[in-house]
Design brief:
Helices cover about 80% and strands about 0% of the residues. It is mainly alpha-helical. It holds the Pfam family DUF465.
Length: about 70
């Protein structure tokens, strides 16, 4: 997801419960999207788009938390 932040992500997952929860939600959505896209016959495109928007919102939130943590450790 954010390869340049790998060690910071690990630290935040251990020390920040909110970050950890958002990170897990993001990963769960990613897996659900992949699962739905593998079966396009039974999947609803609108549902997949909605999940992608939720995932992007979480990713943006994670990025903000990472940038804040990065600047607080400098």
């Amino acid at each position: 997801m954010f390869p340049e932040y790998r060690s910071l992500i690990s630290k935040l997952k251990q020390s920040n419960a909110h970050f950890s929860k958002i990170f897990e939600e993001h990963n769960a959505l990613d897996h659900e999207i992949i699962r739905l896209e593998k079966d396009p016959v039974t999947s609803n495109v609108e549902d997949i788009d909605l999940l992608k928007r939720k995932k992007l919102k979480l990713k943006d939130e994670l990025y903000v938390m990472l940038k804040q943590a990065e600047t607080s450790t400098e």
